[in-house]
Amino acid sequence: xxxxxxxxxxxxxxxxxxxxxxxxxxxxxxxxxxxxxxxxxxxxxxxxxxxxxxxxxxxxxxxxxxxxxxxxxxxxxxxxxxxxxxxxxxxxxxxxxxxxxxxxxxxxxxxxxxxxxxxxxxxxxxxxxxxxxxxxxxxxxxxxxxxxxxxxxxxxxxxxxxxxxxxxxxxxxxxxxxxxxxxxx
Length: 185
Hints:
Blueprint: H1 4-13, H2 15-28, H3 40-57, H4 61-75, E1 77-84, E2 103-108, E3 114-118, E4 124-129, E5 138-141, E6 145-149, H5 167-184
Antiparallel strand pairs: 1-2, 1-6, 3-4, 4-5
Helix pairs in contact: 1-2, 2-4
């Protein structure tokens, strides 16, 4: 029961919320990032694949991680859409984990326009990503979305942003400020 568009509006309209989220996001990548593996061959393969995905999508891995991190902190949800194809593999032998074509693109999706469709038992059937114009959206299979969540209650499809609890407090604070300004006037 969390309205992620309300979280977005709060972030873009309130300076306290924006400052706190930006500070946490900045700390997340303060020391940079790197990939580590005990298997140098696997590490080289992953680095090559990420470089080829950068080339295919025109989105640097750094930019992808920063956007995903920002969504993860603000919305407690960070969906990643995967595209598949056998082009731009750079001579590497790659196959899809589910037997199809390998991943050739990773794109961050806005949590505000991301929906999870579930069956009557609560199993995820597919995902839909729509634009801000509200149209029909594009459906993705379970294997083509990675949905990172934080504080996801058992049985729920979405994580609960930790600023959800303070939005009412911030609204009250703004109302008090407005009343004090009226009194001073």
